[in-house]
Design goal:
The protein is of the alpha+beta class and 424 residues long. The chain is built from 18 helices and six strands. Strands 1, 2, 3, 4, 5 and 6 form a six-stranded mixed sheet that branches. β2 and β3 form a beta hairpin.
Length: 424
């Protein structure tokens, strides 16, 4: 057999193993409740409101679903590792973060709508009945940040900074986002930065357009959500310019974004309609130019295919897969697994989470449950026997893990499977 075919076969086996388990873990960890779907709707509506443009219907739905008012402002939270471990890719469960923030803000009697977790930043939209004086706006947002940040830092073991944007009419909330984003660039000075205070910071710290453009290109090449942030900073910078200057700068950035994606993507992207985009820019003016720029940027970048979170080629991932398949019934610990691949437990834990999206215990328990399902469906072994065969010593604990992953107990699973077999 061709050696290349052997390599491709192994690669497919790697993908089948990890992809199958990943899908099972995702299915078992999703809370398909009203709360889960509301969180999903929230994130999508906020993303549309900030980056993609919104329809009158969407805005009407937004008001009805979340009881939003006429005005609002954004707080942008940035979460980073408390201690550097030598591994990039600090990861947080987005739904867990969403639920945690909503729960604690509810206790504080604040109605807030949350956006998606883009890279390591999440936006919090607070709506208001009317424009607040600056001192009241500061008092409210400071109270929120001072109470929420310590809770987030303790729960997620992260360093948290907050940028607070200015108040705007809700349909035109985007400037509050860019305000908050600009404020975050000063978070090394203070963990909570108000946009209204930026004039008081070091005036020599000027915005570097070319450096931000360079960061945008790098983020596009690596398919990072930071690209939206960098594009937003560039838009904020050109917003005060004349329409002609805005048109030229926007066209330059859109061409740059498209070319970066086209060069670095394995897949062909939709051709860049230079003439039509130029015409649309010429026909627009003022804030319409900025809105069109965002919509076109999102359209261009949406043609890229994000990199899979699992690095199948990583030799640690390969060794982990082989060991798990052969020893899942053994008493495996993270420390023993790390020793097997000859790295420290801390580094192994971080690496597995970074390259596969889930931690080692998730993979092991899901693999055991998957094997248990196969045994319960295809053999006459009892639940207790299967429990021991897949590596668990306590049938009650096994039952709890099985129910957590599958939604029903092993005994209920056997009954359901028996019923289906008899029916067929």
């Amino acid at each position: 057999m061709n050696p290349q075919n052997n390599i491709e076969k192994l690669s497919l086996e790697q993908r089948d193993f990890w992809d199958s388990l990943q899908l099972d873990i995702l299915s078992s960890t999703q809370d398909n409740t009203t709360e889960f779907f509301q969180a999903f709707i929230e994130r999508n509506l906020i993303f549309s409101l900030l980056f993609r443009g919104y329809s009158v219907l969407e805005m009407s739905a937004f008001h009805k679903l979340f009881h939003s008012k006429d005005y609002g402002y954004l707080i942008l939270l940035e979460l980073t590792e408390q201690k550097k471990t030598g591994l990039s890719g600090f990861m947080i469960n987005e739904f867990e973060l969403h639920h945690f923030i909503k729960e604690h803000l509810s206790k504080m009697n604040y109605n807030c709508v949350l956006g998606p977790l883009l890279s390591n930043r999440i936006s919090l939209l607070f709506s208001l009945d009317e424009l607040l004086p600056q001192d009241l706006h500061r008092e409210q947002s400071l109270s929120i940040c001072q109470e929420l940040i310590p809770l987030l830092e303790e729960h997620f073991h992260a360093k948290v900074a907050a940028g607070v944007g200015s108040i705007h009419n809700l349909p035109s909330i985007y400037p509050s986002y860019t305000n908050a984003l600009a404020s975050l660039s000063y978070s090394s000075t203070s963990p909570i930065v108000f946009y209204s205070d930026l004039k008081d910071y070091n005036s020599t710290n000027q915005f570097d357009y070319l450096l931000t453009q360079k960061h945008l290109i790098e983020a596009l090449r690596t398919r990072k959500a930071d690209a939206y942030d960098y594009f937003g900073l560039l838009m904020d910078f050109i917003r005060p310019m004349s329409d002609t200057m805005k048109q030229n700068k926007i066209l330059e950035l859109l061409v740059l974004a498209n070319n970066t994606i086209d060069i670095d993507s394995d897949n062909s992207t939709k051709s860049f309609d230079y003439m039509n985009i130029s015409k649309q820019l010429i026909d627009a003016s003022g804030e319409q130019l900025i809105d069109y720029a965002y919509q076109t940027f999102v359209t261009i970048t949406s043609y890229t295919k994000p990199q899979n979170s699992i690095d199948y080629s990583n030799h640690i991932v390969k060794a982990t897969r082989e060991y798990l398949e052969s020893h899942y019934a053994d008493d495996i610990s993270l420390e023993a697994m790390a020793e097997h691949v000859n790295i420290s437990p801390q580094y192994f834990s971080k690496l597995i989470k970074k390259t596969t999206g889930f931690n080692f215990i998730d993979w092991l328990s899901m693999l055991r449950v998957k094997k248990a399902k196969e045994l319960l469906m295809n053999t006459d072994f009892t639940v207790k026997e299967v429990c021991f065969m897949v590596g668990y010593k306590d049938p009650n604990y096994f039952s709890r893990i099985f129910k957590k992953r599958i939604g029903i107990t092993p005994s209920e699973f056997v009954k359901a499977n028996s019923f289906l077999n008899n029916k067929n």
